[in-house]
Design a protein that fits this description.
Enoyl-CoA hydratase/isomerase family protein, binds 3-hydroxybutanoyl-coenzyme A, 13% strand, 2 domains, Rossmann fold, 46% helix, N-(1-d-carboxylethyl)-l-norvaline Dehydrogenase, domain 2, alpha/beta, 8-stranded mixed sheet
């Protein structure tokens, strides 16, 4: 069944090669997913060799894990490893049909990246962004072909969570959107079309949820009490474990975007900002015990 708002599939263009800009954790997870489900070459690019090697290394490690679990055969593992390569220049995207960026969450950085990619890719190549909260319309503005930009927002862990928010910007073309839905279906994701609104839909809800949990701690509820208050609801993980998975910097960025867009409706936890400034990966330290410094930052108020 065609998802609500998806254009006719006949408008979708074939995708025979994928480019991924960035080789961080999100980008590497995307590279593996695209290679595994689309079975086409996937090229990762990043600024330096060390990051590239880490990204490709992550993919190889995950392929080995899938092989060890018996989810793929040895032949499939070798093929998958061969499909994912790294390149220091975007020239490797010259014959790509679909490029997705998963770089730092900053409008200027993303606009610059898309403009650079546009210089090398074929005219019909889709340019997707995995932004978690920024405007797809603004990101596309200034490009020669803004009609080929679309939001393609995945959820962590990408290999496990089925949801994919597809974001239509003001200029997004029908063929671009149709290709995005076709690719999403081949990736075996549940695609939903969402408006190009700050933080789209899911991160808006999650930010509200996290905002209330952090506010409770800011106001004096002990961390453990707030974090385990919902255990009985059967959520897959506690709120602060989720914050750790998403990364406090990303969560803070989304909260700031929402605060800027709707100042009366969304606040920004000062203690979350302190956690990010201190460079903490979350409130939990090694062996999943609450890190005393993180506790002091949060409960210190
Ligand atoms: N990469 C790949 N696979 C992973 C993984 C990862 N990072 N983490 C877990 N998995 C796999 C495991 O290998 C396992 O697979 P198997 O069944 O084939 O063996 C399966 O997921 C279940 O893992 P576990 O048994 O280790 O653990 P759980 O059952 O507790 O599940 C979880 C872990 C999938 C992370 C689950 O806790 C969960 O779904 N949590 C909620 C995550 C969530 O809400 N994410 C959304 C964040 S918001 C976001 O990303 C948007 C952004 O813009 C901020």
């Amino acid at each position: 069944k065609r998802p609500a708002g998806a254009p006719d599939r006949s408008l979708a263009r074939p995708v025979t090669k994928v480019g991924v800009v960035g080789a961080g954790l999100m980008a590497s997870q995307l590279a593996l997913l695209f290679a595994r489900r689309l079975e086409v070459p996937v090229v990762l690019t990043d600024l330096d060799r060390a990051r590239l090697d880490k990204g490709v290394g992550y993919v190889h490690g995950e392929v080995d894990r899938l092989l060890a679990k018996g989810r793929i055969t040895g032949d499939q593992a070798n093929r998958l490893k061969g499909l994912v390569t790294g390149s220091l220049t975007k020239d490797a995207f010259a014959d790509a049909d679909f490029v997705i960026e998963a770089v730092f969450e900053d409008m200027d950085v993303k606009r610059k990246v898309l403009a650079e990619v546009e210089e090398v890719v074929p005219e019909t190549c889709v340019l997707a962004t995995n932004t978690s909260s920024l405007s797809v319309t603004e990101m596309a503005s200034g490009l020669r072909h803004p009609e080929r930009v679309v939001g393609f927002h995945f959820f962590n862990p990408v290999a496990v969570l089925p949801l994919l928010e597809i974001v239509r910007g003001a200029a997004t073309g029908e063929a671009t959107l149709a290709t995005a839905f076709a690719v999403g279906a081949t990736l075996k994701k549940s695609c939903v079309l969402v408006k190009d609104a700050p933080a789209f839909v899911v991160n808006r809800l999650l930010t509200r949820f996290m905002g209330e949990v952090t506010a409770a701690v800011d106001e004096g509820t002990p961390l453990e009490v707030a974090d385990h208050a919902l255990d009985g609801l059967g959520l897959p993980m506690t709120p602060f474990a989720l914050l750790q998975l998403v990364g406090p910097a990303v969560a803070l960025h989304v909260a700031e975007t929402l605060h800027a867009a709707f100042p009366g409706r969304f606040g920004v936890s000062e203690n979350l900002a302190k956690l990010v400034a201190a460079g903490k990966p979350g409130v939990y330290g090694a062996d999943f015990q609450i890190d005393p410094e993180a506790r002091a930052l949060f409960e210190g108020g």
